[in-house]
């Protein structure tokens, strides 16, 4: 998937995500199997440099693999969505299901857009007003997400300050949510376009690039 195609996907993806009623912070609003929504994983944050640096084919692929095919757009039975905000009917089953976005993949999508926007040459094919609009949307959205979850973990301080690494956090099981979103994906709804024609599932347990113990959010 070339850079221009990714930028087109980013533009269409922000529109889809902005137009889709997203799931709220409350755990009860997401009918995931019980294990996925509980804070059952203890993860010690470690640096993962391969997510940073200027956009490249290798880095873009690593970011792409953080979202499942379907980009986190899922179909929920109308009965299961009775306590959720109204959303669009599912293209596959408009009489019995609605489509929703699983918030974590919207959040990753926005962070990925900010990654591109940080390097002006990577968004040169986008109109400046579009870049500013999407950038400001993503900044405000991620701000609300962080305040919603309000992680109270204590992080150690060094002589040069706090870098967030080395602290152990209580986390939800990202791999379970990834797999659940894949299994319940809406095949006919286009999200960010990051699937790039990839039709098979990248198993969640293969979605991290580190070797050895699974420490930090490498995924």
From TrEMBL:
Signal peptide (residue range): none
Pathways per UniProt: Mycotoxin biosynthesis
Biological processes, Gene Ontology terms: mycotoxin biosynthetic process
Family as reported in the entry's similarity comment: Belongs to the ustYa family.
MF terms (GO), sorted A to Z: oxidoreductase activity
Highest rank taxon of the organism: Eukaryota
The protein's name: Uncharacterized protein
Species per Swiss-Prot/TrEMBL record: Penicillium camemberti (strain FM 013)
Keywords associated with the record: Oxidoreductase
């Amino acid at each position: 998937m070339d850079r221009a195609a990714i930028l087109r996907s980013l533009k269409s993806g922000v529109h889809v995500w902005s137009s889709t009623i997203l799931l709220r912070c409350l755990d009860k609003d997401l009918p995931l199997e019980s294990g996925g929504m509980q804070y059952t994983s203890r993860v010690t944050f470690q640096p993962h440099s391969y997510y940073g640096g200027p956009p490249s084919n290798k880095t873009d692929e690593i970011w792409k693999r953080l979202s499942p095919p379907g980009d986190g757009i899922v179909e929920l039975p109308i009965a299961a969505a009775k306590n959720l905000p109204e959303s669009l009917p599912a293209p596959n089953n408009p009489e019995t299901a609605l489509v929703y976005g699983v918030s974590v993949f919207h959040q990753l999508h926005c962070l990925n857009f900010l990654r591109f926007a940080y390097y002006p040459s990577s968004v040169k094919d986008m109109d400046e007003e579009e870049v500013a609009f999407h950038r400001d949307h993503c900044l405000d959205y991620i701000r609300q997400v962080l305040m919603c979850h309000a992680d109270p973990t204590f992080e150690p301080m060094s002589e040069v300050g706090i870098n967030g690494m080395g602290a152990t956090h209580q986390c939800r099981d990202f791999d379970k949510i990834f797999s659940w979103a894949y299994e319940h994906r809406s095949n006919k709804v286009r999200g960010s376009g990051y699937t790039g024609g990839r039709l098979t599932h990248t198993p969640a347990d293969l979605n991290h690039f580190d070797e050895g113990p699974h420490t930090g959010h490498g995924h």
